[in-house]
Amino acid sequence: MHRNDAIKQFHGGDERIAELIDEQAPAGLPTPDTDVPMVSRSVRLPLETYERVREAAEARGIGVTTLMRQWIEAGLADLDDSATVSLADVRRALAALAQPEAAA
């Protein structure tokens, strides 16, 4: 059925539209990456900043919003003196301590 015909049937009160909807395959919705309820906010960034964030996320194999959320959480943890650091940062720091001449 053409979309316009379906719209006309729907607005005309034709009950066959319900049958048409029932016949369709269920829509595949993305699986949330967390069980924690999330709030969506819009952030305006300069294009250059967004591109840098996108590249950083791509290099880590994660989505842009996931990386931004991680950075925000780390920044908030810094405000309340709790320790949130990535394992990669810990490894780099330990490697630098193990080779002090390389760090200088």
From TrEMBL:
Organism: Micromonospora rosaria
Protein name per Swiss-Prot or TrEMBL: Uncharacterized protein
